[in-house]
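Here is the promised in-class demo. Please do not try to memorize the tokens; focus on the logic of going from shape to residues.
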């Protein structure tokens, strides 16, 4: 079993966690037996493990994955016309749909793409699309206005100013940039020995991290893998007390409106991605992460539930949960949400 540490990554940055998840998912999709963990040394780092996994294999797998999605036949390349402008068909947050005909047209095109992915057994693509969500037609405010963003993942933080959206403005550009690299350059970016932010122009205020870290130059291979890491954090629809469908529940997210947090585990045993997905979606992880937060109602667990959750997590080798406050920047019309530096929540009972 060989080890591949992400040396420039650390547990208090959400980008680091999702990068590990994304690399693991990409390699698993390519047919490799992958293990994920965090190192136990003083400066804990994400660690990718697996049989016959070396730099060349990892670099080639990530490049081939990006090249597949940079192709014109990919769902990432598909657009839909809205209000006379082109938008990424599979983006979960799009410009407001003005009529039922537009909803039906977009849904037909989306369903056709999902059928294609199903026929080609593209499980990871389907996981990512399911996790990102889609424009909501079921959620409305008291005035009956459709709240399209209610069907989207909270991890999808691409700002919406000037018509930008996650597929056309971020994934499509990253796919092209990573596909154009040599495997060795991809590996250097993942390890942290070199940083190339092609789509952000290496600018000090680059938005390549897409809310998963503070603005700044971010290697495009890191950003590509991190956004695919969202595939391990699915969403679920929920019915409110009034029996109306409300905001989707996002795995790894707690809180509402302007008081919200992300949370992710740190563990030292070698896990397959399937085990990681099980822990991420567990009620116990969510409960432990809620400890000490100013939550109300059903969002606020009892102390007894918190203690039981901690015992459950400890028994499964989880060392702690990192909780990331979410802040908003910019205008109210096009706010930029960002996961801030995390804090460690201990789980040992």
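The designed amino acids, position by position:
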């Amino acid at each position: 079993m060989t080890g591949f540490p992400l040396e420039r990554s650390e547990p208090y940055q959400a980008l680091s966690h999702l990068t590990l998840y994304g690399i693991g998912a990409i390699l698993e999709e390519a047919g490799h037996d992958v293990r994920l963990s965090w190192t136990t040394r003083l400066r804990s780092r994400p660690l990718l493990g697996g049989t016959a996994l070396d730099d060349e294999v990892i670099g080639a797998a990530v490049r081939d994955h990006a090249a597949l999605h940079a192709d014109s036949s990919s769902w990432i390349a598909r657009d839909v016309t809205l209000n006379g402008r082109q938008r990424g068909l599979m983006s979960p947050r799009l410009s407001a749909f003005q009529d039922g005909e537009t909803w039906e047209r977009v849904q037909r095109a989306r369903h056709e793409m999902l059928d294609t992915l199903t026929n080609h057994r593209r499980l990871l693509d389907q996981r990512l699309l399911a996790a990102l969500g889609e424009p909501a037609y079921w959620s409305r405010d008291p005035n009956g206005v459709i709240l399209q963003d209610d069907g989207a993942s909270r991890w999808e933080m691409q700002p919406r100013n000037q018509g930008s959206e996650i597929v056309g403005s971020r994934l499509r550009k990253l796919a092209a940039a990573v596909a154009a690299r040599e495997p060795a350059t991809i590996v250097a970016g993942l390890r942290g020995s070199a940083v190339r932010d092609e789509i952000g122009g290496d600018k000090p205020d680059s938005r390549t991290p897409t809310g998963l870290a503070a603005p700044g130059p971010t290697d495009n291979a890191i950003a590509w893998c991190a956004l695919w890491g969202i595939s391990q954090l699915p969403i679920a629809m929920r019915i409110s007390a009034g029996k109306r469908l409300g905001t989707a529940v996002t795995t790894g997210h707690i809180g509402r409106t302007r008081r919200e947090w992300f949370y992710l585990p740190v563990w030292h045993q070698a896990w397959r991605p399937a085990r990681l997905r099980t822990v991420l979606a567990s009620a116990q992880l969510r409960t432990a992460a809620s400890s000490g937060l100013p939550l109300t109602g059903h969002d606020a667990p009892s102390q007894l539930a918190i203690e039981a959750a901690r015992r459950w997590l400890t028994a499964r080798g989880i060392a702690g949960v990192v909780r990331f406050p979410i802040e908003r920047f910019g205008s109210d019309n096009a706010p930029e949400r960002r996961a801030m530096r995390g804090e460690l929540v201990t789980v040992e009972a």
